[in-house]
Write a structure and sequence with these properties.
By secondary structure, this protein is mainly beta. Helix content is 4%, strand content 53%. It folds into 2 domains: 10-125, predicted glycosyltransferase like domains (Thrombin, subunit H), CATH 2.40.10; 135-208. Strands 1, 2, 3, 4, 5, 6, 7, 8, 9, 10, 11, 12, 13 and 14 form a 14-stranded antiparallel β-sheet that branches. The protein is elongated, with a radius of gyration of 18 Å. It starts with 16 loop residues before the first strand and ends with a strand.
Amino acid sequence: MSRVTTNRVNTVDLLRGCAMKKRSERFVLGSTGCIKVGAKELFFNVKNMSVTGLLIEVKDNLQVKSEHELYTLLGGKNCDINFHVFNPDVSGMATVVSVELAQGRLIISLKFSALNFEDGFMVFKRRLPRKATQVQGRLYCHKQWYSFIGDDISLNGLSVKMAVPCPVSGGEWVTLEVPTLSLWGSARVKWSAPDDFRLGVEYISLTHN
């Protein structure tokens, strides 16, 4: 959201945007975290992160040495696992999409299943590259659904153009559905421009279908 700003966070000076498959905006992060695989905790470096998932490189392959061993510990493919990125402070559940061995290290692609934005992703409140593609969705407030077109999408929120006036003000919580991005959840209104039928919302929690 272009009108949301916070203090600069020095730990992600490596942040940069790049075009990826399906036009998803991904960002290179100098961050670490861990995933829980069976009874093991595997620490990783974040290689890429997007609004739908992240790509990680496992630091220590001594505990899990191969794709087969990883899936055995998980109990099969397409299983949800718990993850925690330390900075920005983000935790949740994700599905393993793919596992590869590159230069002796496991590279794991994860698709988010559930995220909590209340404590995490605050670092992305700086100016970021945006996803220019417009998406359609709807917003629920005051016991009514309102259709919108989102045209400014980032990892922490989006700016939307409402089809009709929507009686909300800054600070209110709303329910959000964006079928084209396969996500729904709750959000907080950060700013409104009633004359232009526009709103800026910040994610609180999201679920990816």
